[in-house]
Specification:
Blueprint lengths: L4 E3 L7 E5 L9 H11 L4 E5 L2 H9 L8 H17 L7 E6 L1 H13 L3 E5 L24 E6 L7 H5 L7 E6 L16 H16 L3
Helix pairs in contact: 1-6, 3-4
Length: 209
């Protein structure tokens, strides 16, 4: 059984499941900020960890993510558990940070959820823009919000402008943000401002605005 961290009212009309990125757990500062910020708007938020991160929590050993089939199966199981808890599939959104959002994008259509939220999508490996991870995004049917930093090393504004993405995908760009949305001081923006803008974009998307 998946272990969850919940934020927001249990009786909320809408809910979102968030998965962590490749290297940090579900209770890292980024995930806490987004979970608590989204929950403050009255949305039920469930965070969970992939099996490899659970093992790291148990023994303290850093390890790479499991292969995609295992991650996909974990996401599918997690969605079914949350639906069985009583949150209607038509009111459920899924997504997460980087890897978590990418794997969610692979199951979203089949899962029949209301929407997908990707926080810093890894459009390609860092330093390897030719190795894109966008093939399935051309045909995605699930309404999708991608919140992305303009200078994300895994997909900059300039990179993504050239991709053929599904019309179901909406992009929200955060000024001068890196992969965790942190801008440079010269931009005049702060990390907190970008996080707050990203949270507001997710809340608006979930609430249909």
């Amino acid at each position: 059984m998946t272990e969850f961290m919940f934020d927001g009212p249990a009786e909320a009309q809408h809910g979102i499941i968030l998965a962590h990125g490749a290297g940090a757990p579900m209770d890292n500062p980024f995930m806490i900020a987004f979970a608590e910020g989204i929950a403050a708007a009255g949305i039920r938020v469930a965070r969970f960890e992939f099996s490899y991160m659970c093992r790291r929590r148990e023994d303290g050993r850093r390890r790479p993510p499991d292969r995609a089939p295992a991650l996909i199966e974990c996401w599918q199981t997690t969605v079914e558990q949350v639906v069985q808890m009583g949150l209607p599939r038509e009111n459920l959104f899924i997504g997460g940070k980087s890897l978590g959002g990418r794997i969610a994008s692979m199951i979203a259509d089949d899962a029949g959820v209301a929407g997908l939220v990707c926080l810093g999508y890894p459009f390609h490996p860092s330093g390897k823009p030719e190795r894109t991870r966008v093939d399935h995004l051309q045909f995605l049917r699930t309404p999708t919000l991608v919140v992305q930093g303009e200078r994300d090393s895994l997909g900059t504004l300039e990179d993504v402008e050239d991709y053929a993405l599904s019309p179901a995908i909406r992009l929200h760009w955060l000024t001068d943000g890196d992969h965790s949305f942190k801008p440079r001081k010269v931009s005049g923006r702060t990390e907190q401002q970008n996080w707050e803008e990203g949270i507001a974009a997710v809340v608006g998307f979930v609430n249909g605005r």
